[in-house]
Amino acid sequence: MDELRLNKVFAGFLFAALLLMAGVKIADVMVPHQELAENAYVIEVAETTDIAAAAPVDTGPESILALLASADLGAGEKLSKKCSACHVFDAGGQNKVGPALWNVVNRPLGASEGYAYSDALAGFGGAWDYAALNAFLAKPKGYISGTKMNFAGLKKPQDRANLIAWMRAKADSPVALPSADDIAAEGAN
Ligand code: HEC
């Protein structure tokens, strides 16, 4: 290969390289490379130093004892429709997806005959007094972790009071309403 030809090849490479550099430069001009003035996403971080203070202690649902005496039974009956896919409240009612609930107020937990309760509920102990029903119906899985009752809960205290007052009447002999002393005692806790 003579020298002239070698030069031509070399010039060819040089030209290609120049073209490449020019291309990069042009691209840079067309799509300017800029530093963002600020983050595109602003991440809000609450300025708390005391994490314990930020997360309040779960004190359970609000008491409903004081609301029971003046509760609206009609509203309670309407609310019971939320339960009737799984429960029968009437006398002589059968267990369905959930246990029969006639006489349930003050009944020991897990006591409906022939019903296969979860171990969580069966082993929980105690009776369905007003406070237990209130806590359970506010958030079933929060009160008895592992219960197989798939129900999110009734957030409003007045709803729970109306429903529980109606459930109280679904019994052979409804248990007493909470006394003023009961209400005062719970408030003192
Ligand atoms: C999707 C079905 C379903 C719905 C809806 C439901 N429950 Fe239940 N409930 C269950 C099941 C299942 C159990 C048994 C739980 C266990 O064994 O852990 C249960 C248990 C209970 C118990 C305990 C009874 C006992 O004998 O110890 C009460 C009280 C109760 N439910 C009340 C209610 C009320 C009141 C409502 C409506 C606000 C309701 N449930 C809605 C399925 C349901």
Explain this structure to me?
There is one protein chain. With 189 residues, the protein is mainly alpha-helical. The chain has two domains: 51 residues, no CATH class; 128 residues, Cytochrome Bc1 Complex, Chain D, domain 2. The chain contains nine helices and no strands. Helix 4 packs across helix 8 and helix 6 crosses helix 8. The radius of gyration is 35 Å and the shape is elongated. The relative contact order is 0.14. Heme C binds next to helix 5.
Could you name the key traits of this structure?
single chain, 189 residues, mainly alpha, 2 domains, binds heme C
Classified by CATH, the class of the largest domain is Mainly Alpha
Question: What is the CATH architecture term of the largest domain?
Answer: Orthogonal Bundle
Order of helices and strands: HHHHHHHHH
Give the amount of beta strand, in percent: under 5%
| Residues in helices, as a percent range | 40-55%
Number of domains: 2
- Rg calc: 35 Å
Give the class from helix and strand content and strand pairing: mainly alpha
Overall pLDDT level: 89
Tell me the CATH topology of the largest domain. Cytochrome Bc1 Complex, Chain D, domain 2
CATH superfamily of the largest domain: Cytochrome c-like domain
Instruction: Give the biggest beta sheet.
Output: none
What ligands does this structure carry? heme C
Through-space gap between termini: 103 Å
Q: What is the general shape?
A: elongated
How many helix segments?
9
Low-confidence stretches: none
Give me the count of strands: 0
